[in-house]
Amino acid sequence: SRVFVMNEVLENWVETSGRDAAKWASELKDSRMRDLAMSKAVFDWAEHVPQTAAEFLLHEDPDYVWMLPRVLARWGKYDPETASRWLANVPDKKLVQDCYLALVQEWAMEDAPTALEWARTHMNLDPLIVSNPELVGSWPENSTLKALEWTDKLSSPEARQAAAEKLIENWSIKDPQSFQEWVQSERPGMRKDIGLHSLANMQGIENPAEAMKTAMGIQDEKRRNEALKLHYEFWKESAPEAAAAWLKANPETAKFVQP
């Protein structure tokens, strides 16, 4: 097919002259073929000389600057310090954040602890985690406790909370037994509150009374009230008589679940 032949040609071309290959691709008339050719040329080029490929996109072909985050992701896996220094000179701050996000995401898939610790010490990681908590979600499953300890190094309470919520949510899904054991033994505080909230969510469908009891153990008032209201409303819809009887037996919760 035309695409196969084009990809073969571009793959060899970028090894000798990535700029010429990308320039040729960018001038194709057919928009679909142009996009396919640019993707092949630029991303293969980035495997060999990522900085030159990045500079081409930024300065010579702004129509395809949306490819820059993926180029930086490939660059960052091999030389994050140089990629980061280069990014510091890019004026478009939104584009810079997109590139940092792609860089850390790509790296974290292979080695989340190293990637996230590098990002924490070399860039403003906190807002990225607040808006993209899945960044910490690739931390190895067998070291979630270490990951939770690592979140204490984050600067802002918002980032620490977002990271802890994602880690605990993943833990509760992938290994519910060890997660529940941890929740019961964890000392009071933000992480235990998040754990109790997740545990209540696990219990809510099959045992709403137990979910309500668990939610009552949450110390943070806002989080506790949200959890109680959510599970009571769900219970009231599925079994209104049982929900009303529970509320009557536990009048101290009425102010949390009723308007």
Structural commentary:
The chain is mostly helical and 259 residues long. It is 78% helix and 0% strand. It is built from 15 helices and no strands. It has helices at residues 2-26, 31-48, 50-60, 68-78, 80-87, 93-122, 125-131, 144-151, 157-174, 176-185, 190-203, 208-216, 221-238, 240-249, 254-257. It is elongated. The N and C termini lie far apart (65 Å).
Which helices and strands appear, and what pairs or packs with what?
Elements: H1 2-26, H2 31-48, H3 50-60, H4 68-78, H5 80-87, H6 93-122, H7 125-131, H8 144-151, H9 157-174, H10 176-185, H11 190-203, H12 208-216, H13 221-238, H14 240-249, H15 254-257
Helix pairs in contact: 1-2, 2-3, 2-4, 3-4, 4-5, 4-6, 5-6, 7-9, 8-9, 9-10, 9-11, 10-11, 11-12, 11-13, 12-13, 13-14
Question: What are the defining features of this structure?
Answer:
single chain, 259 residues, mainly alpha, 78% helix, elongated
Total count of helical runs of at least 4 residues: 15
End-to-end distance: 65 Å
User: In sequence order, what are the helices and strands, one letter per element?
Assistant: HHHHHHHHHHHHHHH
| Poorly predicted segments | none
Helix content range of the residues, please?
over 70%
Strand coverage percent: under 5%
| Anisotropy-based shape | elongated
The biggest beta sheet is recorded as: none
Mean pLDDT, all residues: 92
Number of strands: 0
Rg over C-alpha atoms, rounded to the nearest angstrom: 25 Å
Q: Kindly name the structural category.
A: mainly alpha
